[in-house]
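ok so I'm stuck.
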Amino acid sequence: HMNLLITGASGFVGSNFILAAPRNWQITAVYHKDSKLKRLVKEHKLKNVKLVKCDLTSETQVEKLAQKVGKNPINVLYLAGNSDPQFSAANPLEDLRQTTFGLANFLAHFNIEKIIYFSFKYYLTYMR
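replied:
not stuck anymore, here's the structure
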């Protein structure tokens, strides 16, 4: 069976992946703000999914997450990141901090065997 850690698990792709994943996979689903994921896991009786709340930009929280996961190599589906193009356009430095620092902080604390990193592209039009 597969042991998988999913960041950004409460988003559209993450929550649908959790629903579609084989039930014999052990999934650690990392989320930051969205508590709808708790209801989804309970409603679908996903006993193979362990939910962990974590702000990936917080070194302390990521260290605690790494302790929970353990030192064995892990497989990662990395979906965390801002998905709001308006926020990105209005706050480019904060968007960069959240996305880039969150990823770097995560990578620094885990022994990763395989990782799939999703990047969501937005095409923005800037008017002068």
